[in-house]
Design brief:
The chain has 75 residues and is of the alpha+beta class. It contains one helix and three strands, in the order E-E-E-H. The structure holds zinc ion.
């Protein structure tokens, strides 16, 4: 199991709005949020989406409008 430390200082739950959520800080360097009211959890995939969205914003701020790499077209 991961070694996590819980803090009751997370942001409001995006599912039910309860605050604060529990914030678990892992020794590996990432965080998870858990809502004690409705059971909502931010899983790893959600965190990846969050970072990807942030990265897209930063790339746009750099003005780099390079087209996406070609994808193989297979039906
Ligand atoms: Zn909740």
């Amino acid at each position: 199991m991961f070694d996590a430390e819980g803090h009751e200082d997370g942001p409001a739950c995006p599912a039910c709005g309860a605050a604060p959520t529990w914030r678990f800080v892992y020794a590996e360097g990432f965080e998870e949020l858990e809502c004690r009211a409705c059971g909502w959890r931010s899983d790893e995939e959600a965190l990846h989406d969050l970072r990807r969205a942030t990265g897209e914003v930063l790339e746009r701020e750099h003005g780099d409008t390079a087209p996406p790499l070609g994808r193989p077209l297979r039906a």
